[in-house]
Amino acid sequence: MSEKHATLTIEGNNYRLPIITGTAGDKAIDIRELRSTTGYITLDSGYMNTGSCSSDITFLDGEKGILNYRGYEIDVLAENCSFVEVSYLLLMGELPTQTQLNDFRALLSRFALIHEDMIHFFDHFPPNASPMAILSTMVNTLHNFYPEMTGDSGEDLPEIAARLLSKIRTIAAFSYKKSIGHPLVYPRYDLSYCGNFLNMMFDKPVKPYVVHPQVVATLNKLLILHADHEQNCSTSTVRLVGSAGVNLYTSISAGISALWGPLHGGANQAVIEMLEAIHQDNNDFEKYIKKAKDPNNPFRLSGFGHRVYKTFDPRATIIKRACKQTLKALNVDDPLLEIAMQLEEITRSDEYFVGRNLYPNVDFYSGIIYRAMGIPTDMFTVMFAMGRLPGWISHWMEMMGDTKDRRIGRPRQIYRGHKKRDFVPLHERG
Ligand code: CMC
Q1: pLDDT tens-digit readout, 390-399
Q2: Which of 76, 89, 112, 288 could form a disulfide with 187 if both were Cys (CB 3.0 to 4.6 A apart)?
């Protein structure tokens, strides 16, 4: 990083603030000394312009629609790698050699089971409990079962990461089996990461599941596309919670909770619910477009818009293609795909969406693929969480290892309440 300076003038005084330039040319004004030298803070609700850290993991250019993990382009990774390979890349910084990949896979197999006592937990959630609440609870609880591996020391990264990556998949599939009252299906050493997940989801004692190579390939692709997205809401949550010194599992559990929101990962479920509603309304697109444009109506087109992308989300473009291919390969004719494509087309010629740079995002077409795979709607955001996990772990580890800049995350505020009031004893209050 090279250093230049910006000049800030406040009340006639000039202050020199260092300019930080990232490796891809992204620029920031370093205001770390701002309050101590000027008495001012910056105010940036929603962190529209605030960088919270420097990171080596993911580069994103929202104006150009570029997304790279550790310097590799997302479409190249999605086309050529497995999710396990990409997880290794995010975590360790390099693509694995064949031996490293085999070792990492062996760890994933070794850690695939969850402690049998954890299985009893599933019995005590109400039958309609959200799988996201279950996931977040269970991941938090992992700390109690595996306290010796918290990641605090930064040692044993592959083991810690493999344990969490492997167990989240088992927890996700078990929560689904419990929700439908079917017996649990345990992980198998002979299946791949995605193959294992699908088998745990869909195998039944009465009807063995045959792992479909197209489904495995598509699932790998989807998880890769979700694997990291720099300082999004859930990753920032993981970093913020972790900055207080909280263990890895609990930090990730907080990230899962953040992801649940319909403005974030929960959008993939909201998209399908919206497309189903349009379908039931005899494809009355106009009604939904009108609602989405109405400033007095909180309704938004789910799966559209993004804080950082002001052009096509590169992930959405790949997912749309994969969606068409997968439905064709599985011989699935889902009317929601046609509705989604029509909705996209309508927005591309509507000044409201064009003027605000509102394009389909990663969540717009992913749910249609999950449906075709047989994954229930309320599990969609769990799928997102499984995909995002290597990113969360990588960011948590990076933050913990950054001994120079690591501090508890603690934003400031501008107070706008009462300045000072005289206390009135209870018996004198009207
Ligand atoms: N439908 C209709 N109008 C929208 C939409 C939408 N989906 N998204 C943004 N707008 C409008 C918004 O009303 C505002 O209009 P105006 O300038 O007239 O007030 C303008 O576009 C800018 O929106 P914003 O809310 O200031 O943008 P933001 O960066 O704060 O929010 C967002 C980004 C993703 C939360 C938002 O676009 C949204 O709510 N989208 C729908 C939910 C969604 O798909 N979320 C998934 C995001 S991608 C994956 C992920 O992060 O998990």
Answers
A1: 999 999 999 9
A2: 112
- Residue 177: what residue type? K
pTM above 0.85, yes or no: yes
Q: Is 301 in the pocket of ligand 1 (CB under 6 A)?
A: yes
**Residues labelled as active-site residues:** 306, 363
Counting from 1 in the atom list of ligand 1, the atom nearest the Cα of 303 is 44
| Domain 60-403 homologous superfamily, CATH | Citrate Synthase, domain 1 (1.10.580.10)
How far is 252 from 34, CA to CA, in rounded Å? Answer: 32
Domain ranges, ordered by start, for the chain = 5-42, 60-403
Give the pLDDT of residue 214: 94
Length of the chain equals: 430
Cβ atoms of 133 and 378 within 8 Å: the answer is: no
Q: With a 6 A CB cut-off, is 313 part of the ligand 1 pocket?
A: no
- Report in angstroms the alpha-carbon separations of 423 from 127, 196, 404, 417, 426: 49, 64, 45, 15, 9
**Residue 187 identity:** P
- The CA angle 63-69-73, to the nearest 5 degrees, is 65
User: Using a 6 Å cutoff on CB, does residue 356 contact ligand 1?
Assistant: yes
306 CA distance to ligand 1 middle (Å): 6
